[in-house]
Amino acid sequence: MQPHQLELLAPARTFDIGIEAINHGADAVYIGGPSFGARSTADNSIQDIAKLVQYAHRFHSRIFVTLNTILRDDELEGARKLAWQLYDAGVDALIVQDMGLLEIDMPPIQLHASTQTDIRTPEKAKFLQDAGLSQIVLARELTLPQISAIRDAVDTERTVIEFFVHGALCVAYSGQCFISHAHTGRSANRGDCSQACRLPYEVKDAQGRIVAHDKHVLSMKDNNQSENLRALVDAGIRSFKIEGRYKDMAYVKNITAHYRKLFDEVLTERPELAPASHGRTTFNFEPDPNQNFNREFTDYFVQGRKEDIGAFDTPKNPGQPIGWVSKVSAEHVEITTDDPATELHNGDGMCYYDLQKELVGLQINRAEAQKAKGVWRLFPKDPMDGFKDLRKGVQVNRNRDMSWVRTLDKKSAERRMGVWMQLAENTGGQGEGLQLTLTDEAGHTGTAQTAIDWQASKDPAQAEDKLKAALGKLGDTLFEPFDVQTALPRPWFVPPSQLNALRRDAVQALEAARAQGLHRLPRAVPVEPPAPYPEDTLTYLANVFNQKARDFYAKHGVKVIDAAYESQEELGEVSLMITKHCVRFSLSLCPKQAKGVTGVQGTVKAEPLQLINGKEKLTLRFDCKPCEMHVVGKIKKSVLNAVPESPVQFYKTRPLVQGMH
């Protein structure tokens, strides 16, 4: 990718969703392969990925495959074989977390740093660039000045800086959360997170007083950077990533379309920038991020620390306010909509908050419009007496609009590339005939010839217009005509069958030229001698889980290397999660706030808090200087006693191989 190109990077759980991401304007798609993809139920076969690559490459869109779990020694060979299969399938890059992969016989495929590599500093970003990673995704917690500092530290000719612009937010710095493994043995670093952050907790202070009851204090709202795109471009971001490899088709279509439209506006304003792939996308619907499942939106820390980043009341989708209850009966509920023009449909999803501020879902079987405008009688799927605190005056939200769902079930976008078409006489050696040349927006050309018998047109005045109209019928190809020129000295009549064959051959020639014009992304060569890692000691937080990863860090000057948390050597209380989100700040208990000045640097002592969910107890400790929170706990006995998937042998020193002295 060139430094002036902007890439819209969309997720795909499956092959079909990947195709629609491309159709809806994605410049690149990231998808999981058959294994090691950090999303335990979003695997895809090599065959499907190869088909997706073929389709994407027609638009010069790219396909990146996630190979981003941490690997045990006995998995490295499987990962190596898979990398070669993906390379042979034409995949453009692999997204990786485990540095052990850089020490084995990988194919010459471009490598990108996964969000799990936790890139928060210019030093770490530059190190990963020097180690051979060509695209790096920054931590979602960074501010615009921090992003700019990273841009200034790396070589933007060699390194693409990527940033998450939309979707669910992990409350922890990615790669720095071990709660799931400690409590269940399911490791987030291995794609199997149990999402402890979405649970409700009781929050107690150091004296045992309850500060908050049944609040989802670790649950974040969803990321939405729609308002910040220009600022992010200015700060150096070139790849804009949508979260969502677990998300459904409608989400990917809608959110990709939403950002495609926003980026097309930016590209129109700034002619010095260009999209990273080709073609224009038109939509049969108006994209709207509010229509998909979301926990309401935040732009997180991009513009600095904000008060309202958490979805503390519920991790569910509260939807959009739509009206209020005007009557409740034994069979149905009547609601009056805020806007009388609002249409409700059978199958819509509604919800409201009960008196405990819990979100209660209300699935509608049948919606009947009443005589009075804006009044609807709703018959829910479940019996009316089960709806707690549903009474007159309660505000009702809609979190699923069936007509919207149906719109996105149908074909909802078209992506085409503009071509200039020129028909001329071909006076080459083989008698007279016609030559059709197609030139696309990137300058690729395809040419076809046909010999024809000279036939005068019956209607010379209309002949040229008819030829142009017939040539411009590009139908179900990927192309649409920008302009059709005929450079003919006399008015020909060309039989439609010959014209169609000529056009078909020219389109094929152009597709072939485009395929030839797409070059594989180069694998970056690591700097020699190896760049020193910014620190000389690594704790379990570095996620080093195999001997090759150890070798990698040792080669880069690290002296002390602890094993990853998953190797179960940390038996005491340790930080199970490190996050920029601060529960004290969110509950207005921050000592810095108390001083009346937000963000004072200095020695501020914040007492720990406790989080309690059933029998689970976690301690919150506050590191006020960098303004971070640590969630502290220890690994459960049941996890330690469970048989590991495969025993990990992790050596503190190099083992002596038998027979070698």
From TrEMBL:
Origin superkingdom: Bacteria
Record Pfam families: DUF3656, Peptidase_U32
A molecular-function term among this protein's GO annotations: peptidase activity
Domain Peptidase U32 collagenase stretches: 396-514
UniProt keyword annotations, A-Z: Hydrolase, Protease
Keyword Ligase: no
Protein name per its UniProtKB record: Protease
Native source species: Limnohabitans parvus II-B4
